[in-house]
Amino acid sequence: MTTPDIRFIAADMDGTLLDPSGNLDPDFFDVFEQLAKRNVLFAAASGRQYYSLQDTFAPIADKMLFVAENGTMVMHQGQELYSNTIERQDITRVIEAARQIDGVHIVLCGKSGAYIESTDPRAHQEIQKYYAKRTQVDDLLSVDDQFIKVALLHFDGTEAKVAPTFNAEFGDSHQVVVSAKIWLDVMDKTASKGAAIEHLQNTMGFSYEQTMSFGDFFNDVEMLQVSGESYAMENAHPEVKQYAKYIAPSNAQSGVLSTIKRLFSLAQ
């Protein structure tokens, strides 16, 4: 089998690279090193915060490329390569609209960290999974930072409880994406994992054909579309699978790693 001419691999985290319990396969670090020896750059492309991703990949964080916050912030070796911010007046509109929906918990995402005003213990437990650097505040509208995203949490499901309202009010002016069953993100209209990867293609010297990606939910669609070799996970949302060239085994079967090992004939 001929090894594909791939120079860049991006993998979503939750539902994709991580198993159903949210754990990283210990084999990942060996696979990463084998890819690096072949000059293949690997990126974690996630709705998660940059600081959270750093913690997950601590042993190799200085080598990893992070497409964080659904593509609104790209970091490599501690340096910002790309970001896509939201104007403060738009942040105010989004927060005020979110406050009108019963059951919504708001995470205001800035370059320096995440900010929350909810005091609900269950919400805090969920939020800490994705935002390692976070600050409790009395009023999100008083926060001073460069803002890149507003993440909305609703335990009854954002596709039904939040998306209709936000698509109607912000769909034309912003990127509104259901990023997981209980999460929805609001970003600049031009922001996506795909836009971030296109920037990297233009600045780091790899092509569409040399790009491989793996994803499972709606926030991965643009990433799959800008990748010559695109994989939706077997456990992906049914509507997302239509955007991928191939289907990878589920995240419960380490589908990302097994696919990479097979395609690159990596040592087991």
TrEMBL record:
Keywords of the record: Hydrolase
Example GO molecular function: hydrolase activity
Domain of life per record: Bacteria
Pfam families: Hydrolase_3
NCBIfam families for the chain: Cof-subfamily, HAD-SF-IIB
Protein name (database record): HAD family hydrolase
Organism taxonomic ancestry: Bacteria, Pseudomonadati, Pseudomonadota, Gammaproteobacteria, Vibrionales
